[in-house]
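Appendix B. One record, verbatim.
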Amino acid sequence: MEKRLLLAVVLMTAAIMFTNILFPPAEPPPAAAPGEVEASPGVTASAAPATSAAAPLPTVGSMAATAPVDSVVVESELYRHVFSTRGATLVEASLPQFSSYQGEDEVVQLVPPGETRFFSRRLVVGGDTVDLGTLPFIASDRHLEVSPDGGSQRLTFSYTGEAGFGIDISYTFEPDSYLISVEGEVRGLGGRPAQLLTELGPRMEIHEHPDHRSEREFAVVTRDPQGVDRLAFRRVEGRQQLAGGLTWAGIKDKYFLAAIIAGEQTPLAGAILEDVPDLVREVDGDERSFPQARLTTILPVGPDGRFQYGAYLGPQEYDRLAAIGYELEDVTPYGYRWLQPIIRPLAAAVLWVLNTLHNTLGVAYGWVLVIFGVMMRILLWPLNAKAMRAQMKNMAVQPLLQEIRDKYKNDPQKQQEAMLALYKEHGFNPFAGCLPMLVPFPVLITLFFVFQNTIAFRGAEFLWLPDLSLRDPLYILPLILVVSMFALQWVSAHLSGMEQNPQMKMMMYFMPIMMGAIFFMLPAGLNLYYAVTQVASIPQQVLIAKERRKAQEAIKKSPPPKKAKARR
């Protein structure tokens, strides 16, 4: 879809430029694992001799099998998390404010049903590994209500084993944030170095509409000192170990993110990425394949047995992610990598404007797009006016240019010299009418990607549109876009008094039809914005056409400009 969007903008810009010229008005490779631990392949662990103060690591198989398993529920307006006392693992992460497209009255669920390893942990000590996901923990509460009145809430899971070994894991929840603070302490290590491994994957639960093609967005995202990197699930092969120094690492789909955030003070010591066979599921009567991958983060445990990190389980809302820091807002790429240095700041500005309009005016996002479309047309008016006046200025020398072409048609060098002399004498610039049109080009590209990926439009209704992130079910907006594009070209051609050659007539019919075919399958939000800008352009185009007609009539009445002589 991104290629079609980029093609649409390129074609529109090319049409503007060449119409003015030709028809003037009269990834880095994975680091090899330096060592492997038998119980945890691919994980590097520093071995240290056991001391008398070090407790032996537990054998928990029979104990875990007989221990009762309870569920602990944590609820707020933003989320509903369910933890299991076995392993203190997360078995459900629901987001009540976001509806799932997989069934009526269902909300987005991040953890796949029945997946027991989504948020599980292992502890690596020397050459030994303890699967914490099998340990029977005791929870400090069975149910927590996290509300603005009560502030943050803390939930602690504790396990005490034999010979002094034990572990406490605490989660701190905020009422207005999807970020969870995780703290822990391992007892009985005796100063031995350790590493905490936390798993994410093999995917988030499928909750998007088939038209969202969310499986194309399944990716592992990481951030190191060089910046944010993304690797699509479909490109993961075998098992590879990522280098350390990661500020955060996570998995994402089109609109949601699950990430482990270690920060810069004690970054992740690395991560393990493993390929998992695709999930095949029937969607709308057709079998579709969903790529899968499992991410395991590696966090160093301090000499005192303590560890700390953050876990984000929520939507890819730009403001929320930016508030956390560490470039977390860049998990969603706007445009291709080579475009991102330009598009990224523009995307931030566009999102700020959209959110400000929505929050300040208190209107639906459909009306926000309408208002934003009119605002953009007003802001671009000076550029369009400048281009128009440059075109009219150049109209006067078109007859002289044609004379030079005819006079020196067999001598290209003299023809070029004569044209340069004419340009200098009359201040003529053949690109003067096109350059102002190129200024908003990065903005147009940015809008394509922002409107396509903004979660605010997901499920947003507007007039007859049930969802701005999906196509118009009645295809009214693509039709309005085609009609308005044709009207703009018709106004420009007829009201300005310009004579149309066959090429211009063909373009007047071909371009709207071609653009309509491209926008036919695009999200309604995109179509709404561009339809608004096209309709809002008609009054402006009428004024431009009338001014062109006056300029042409003045040229006909005035004596022709002085002819330029070619240099000898």
